[in-house]
């Protein structure tokens, strides 16, 4: 296998392309995304194209935010399986406390407060008590789900509708092509990208994930980093939960669950390594878009749910394998 | 999987230092066994009617998750993790239910054998993809969980009713005495026939070696890739048995995967298997599954909100790992 790869590599044109892809991993992803969008334009020639794009972006945004949580956490070598429970909880709490426009800030504030608490517990567990992130976030996810379920039984007799403001934010579109959820997403994306590229905290995330021992020996208090990281992750998950409940006009304690595993997949497709220290949010956004467009393309083509799932999984393996090939040889 | 904190040794915080040396690595399993007995006694004390039928339903309830936990145990010991177990169970469960539908018992037996082979094959596909693509285990099996669940959904969109007396007779009801449910016997037979020979074999040793230190295993002449593929194939086998157990218990094939994957990770960790690989056994996770099931039963008997059972499960999971890491750290600094 090694020799065949070496000959494959020796052809100058292919080697050049491979180098380009390795140095700029966003390029192949954008090509894949463009191909998927083009495929849609071909199979549905007369369709409402701006409307299609807006719908894709609207659906992809909550996924991209959740995948942002995974990206940040994966940079430190972790994974956050509690984002679905946190997001659902936040959407549900906000809906249950909402009684009118005046109570919106309170409802959202309380939901964000709970999310921050969840993040702090995750951060303490992973950072101070050294619990494996998979176990910590899985366990806390169960706790949140159970608690939220109990709370749901309490409030089910009263009313719990999704606040109209969140419905507008999650599902409305201006001028047929500008989804209002971009008003949330653009600041979030700028925040994450600037944080990762331009701040000391961002560098610490990469440092802790790339080589925890070296980071510790350089004087990094890794538990401080992890505590802040998991709080940020939980707050982002809560934002995603608001948007999902606005998008679907549903508030339930399991609402975000179907987006949990795709959020990990989007981060991986975007080139973030689960072993830590490598990746970024720009790729993750493209990853979320690829998964969303691929899913709606397959349903447009009339594939049943079963075939979509099979292809969905195959795409993840193929893209991840492609990355592994690119990055392990240099 | 890096930086895992395995819950080894004892949980008791007080006399750790004295007990620590005396108890070997089986202390965790022994503690779990004691916990199961205590929980059974406690259950009996809060509900005097809890007896043979209670144990019977406990055995039937834990059977699918116990096999899921065995599957997870095998790959976690080999240093991996399998997030596609629930999907493999759904697929094998669907295949079994569909192929047996309206057939005679002879064909049914052939189908069982075929489904077990199918389990080995799909498990091996997982392992092969991990070794060949060099992508992290968690990612490949996450992606394959969609693929296997998709195939299950392809067979039929809705649950298929396919009850078979002989199959459900294998797990329902007691053997010899009314306190020995058949489901426990099935579990014991599976462990005896598959797990114990495995542990004694070269392959078993190789799985532990690859899990604890792949480089050292490679330099000692172990084929790391082949061992990993075989470990995943065994996980597929256990998942297929779990899928058949679902068929036997529910009398139907359900294309939607249950929550077995994450529950199996929890059971494995509670059962004393290190997520870092190379440490643990089959008995701990099975006992852990029983503990979790008994806690749920007790909460129902106590009239507590059933959601508290979910909360408790999460708290126990975290608490066990925290205590495990605290005792480890104290040992490291001692």
Share of residues in helices of chain A: over 70%
The number of distinct helices of chain B, counting runs of at least 4 residues, comes to 14
State the strand order across the main sheet of chain B.
1-4
For the largest beta-sheet of chain A, the strand count, sense and barrel status come to: 2 strands, antiparallel
Mean pLDDT of chain B, rounded to whole units? 85
The shape of chain B, in one word, is globular
Question: What does this protein look like?
Answer:
The complex is a heterodimer of chains A (330) and B (334). By secondary structure, chain A is an all-alpha fold. Chain A has 15 helices and two strands. A two-stranded antiparallel sheet of chain A has the order 1-2. The longest helix of chain A is centred in the first third of the chain and has 27 residues, at 49-75. Chain A starts with a helix and ends with a helix. The model of chain A has no long low-confidence stretch (mean pLDDT 85). Chain B has 334 residues and is mainly alpha-helical. Chain B has helices at residues 16-22, 27-46, 52-77, 85-100, 105-133, 137-155, 165-171, 182-200, 202-212, 214-219, 224-250, 260-270, 283-301, 307-333; strands spanning 160-161, 174-175, 177-181, 252-253. In chain B, the strands form two sheets. Chain B has a two-stranded antiparallel sheet with strand order 1-4. A two-stranded antiparallel sheet of chain B has the order 2-3. In chain B, helix 3 packs across helix 13 (283-301) and helix 13 (283-301) crosses helix 14 (307-333). Mean pLDDT of chain B is 85; it is low at 1-13. At the A-B interface, helix 7, helix 13 and helix 15 of A face helix 5, helix 6, helix 12 and helix 14 of B.
Keywords:
heterodimer, A: 330 residues, mainly alpha, B: 334 residues, two-stranded antiparallel sheet, disordered N terminus
List the helices and strands and how they pair.
The complex is a heterodimer of chains A (330) and B (334).
Chain A: H1 2-10, H2 12-23, H3 26-43, H4 49-75, H5 83-97, H6 104-127, H7 133-155, H8 164-171, E1 173-174, E2 178-179, H9 182-198, H10 200-210, H11 212-217, H12 222-248, H13 260-269, H14 281-300, H15 305-328
Antiparallel strand pairs in A: 1-2
Helix pairs in contact in A: 3-14, 4-9, 4-10, 4-12, 4-13, 4-14, 5-6, 5-7, 5-12, 6-7, 6-12, 8-12, 9-10, 10-12, 13-14, 13-15, 14-15
Chain B: H1 16-22, H2 27-46, H3 52-77, H4 85-100, H5 105-133, H6 137-155, E1 160-161, H7 165-171, E2 174-175, E3 177-181, H8 182-200, H9 202-212, H10 214-219, H11 224-250, E4 252-253, H12 260-270, H13 283-301, H14 307-333
Antiparallel strand pairs in B: 1-4, 2-3
């Amino acid at each position: 296998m090694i020799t065949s790869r070496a000959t494959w590599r020796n052809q100058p044109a292919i080697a050049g392309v491979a180098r380009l892809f390795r140095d700029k991993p966003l390029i192949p992803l954008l090509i894949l995304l463009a191909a998927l969008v083009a495929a849609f334009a071909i199979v549905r020639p007369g369709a409402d194209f701006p409307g299609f794009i807006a719908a894709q972006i609207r659906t992809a945004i909550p996924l991209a935010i959740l995948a942002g949580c995974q990206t940040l956490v994966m940079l430190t070598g972790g994974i956050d399986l509690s984002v679905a429970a946190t997001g659902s909880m936040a959407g549900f709490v906000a809906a249950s406390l909402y009684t009118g426009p005046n109570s919106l800030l309170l409802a959202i504030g309380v939901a964000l407060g709970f999310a921050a608490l969840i993040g702090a517990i995750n951060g303490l567990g992973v950072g101070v008590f050294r619990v494996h992130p998979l176990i910590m976030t899985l366990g806390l996810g169960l706790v949140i789900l159970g608690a939220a379920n109990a709370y749901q039984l309490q409030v089910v007799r009263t009313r719990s509708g999704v606040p109209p403001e969140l419905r507008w934010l999650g599902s409305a579109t201006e001028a047929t092509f500008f989804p209002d959820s971009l008003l949330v997403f653009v600041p979030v994306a700028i925040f994450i990208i600037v944080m990762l590229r331009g701040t000391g905290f961002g560098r610490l995330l990469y440092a802790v994930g790339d080589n925890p021992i070296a980071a510790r020996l350089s004087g990094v208090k890794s538990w401080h980093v992890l505590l802040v990281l998991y709080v940020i992750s939980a707050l982002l998950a809560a934002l995603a939960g608001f948007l999902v409940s606005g998008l679907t006009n549903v508030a339930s304690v399991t609402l975000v669950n179907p987006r949990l595993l795709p959020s990990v997949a989007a981060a991986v497709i975007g080139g973030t390594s689960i072993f830590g220290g490598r990746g970024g949010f720009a790729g993750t956004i493209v990853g979320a878009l690829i998964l969303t467009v691929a899913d709606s393309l397959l349903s447009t083509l009339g594939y049943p749910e079963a075939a979509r799932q099979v292809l969905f999984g195959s795409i993840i393996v193929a893209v991840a394998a492609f990355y592994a090939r690119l990055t392990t040889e240099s | 999987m890096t930086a895992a904190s395995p819950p080894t040794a004892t949980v008791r915080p007080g006399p750790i230092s004295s007990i620590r040396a005396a108890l070997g690595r089986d202390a965790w399993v022994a503690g779990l066994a004691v916990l199961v007995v205590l929980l059974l006694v406690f259950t009996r004390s809060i509900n005097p009617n809890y007896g043979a039928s209670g144990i019977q339903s406990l055995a039937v309830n834990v059977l699918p998750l116990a096999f899921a936990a065995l599957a997870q145990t095998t790959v976690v010991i080999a240093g991996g993790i399998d997030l596609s177990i629930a999907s493999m169970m759904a697929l094998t469960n669907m295949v079994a239910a569909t192929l047996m539908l309206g057939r005679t018992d002879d064909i049914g037996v052939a189908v069982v054998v075929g489904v077990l082979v199918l389990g080995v094959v799909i498990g091996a596909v997982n392992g092969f993809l991990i070794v060949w693509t060099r992508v992290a285990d968690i990612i490949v099996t996450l992606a394959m969980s969609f693929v296997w669940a998709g195939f299950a959904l392809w067979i039929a969109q809705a649950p298929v009713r396919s009850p078979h007396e002989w199959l459900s007779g294998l797990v329902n009801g007691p053997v010899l005495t009314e306190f020995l449910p058949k489901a426990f016997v099935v579990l014991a037979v599976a462990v005896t026939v598959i797990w114990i020979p495995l542990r004694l074999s070269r392959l078993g040793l190789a799985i532990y070696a690859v899990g604890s230190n792949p480089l050292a295993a490679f330099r000692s002449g172990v084929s790391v890739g082949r061992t990993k593929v075989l470990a995943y194939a065994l996980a597929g086998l256990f998942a297929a048995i779990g899928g058949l157990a679902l068929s036997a218990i529910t009398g139907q094939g359900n294309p939607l995967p249950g929550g077995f994957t994450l529950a199996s990770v929890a059971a494995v960790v509670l059962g004393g298997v290190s997520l870092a690989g190379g440490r643990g056994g089959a008995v701990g996770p099975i006992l852990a599954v029983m503990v979790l099931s008994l806690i749920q039963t007790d909460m129902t008997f106590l009239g507590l909100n059933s959601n508290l059972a979910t909360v408790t499960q999460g708290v126990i999971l975290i608490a066990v790992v925290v205590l495990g890491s605290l005792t480890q750290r104290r040992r490291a600094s001692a």
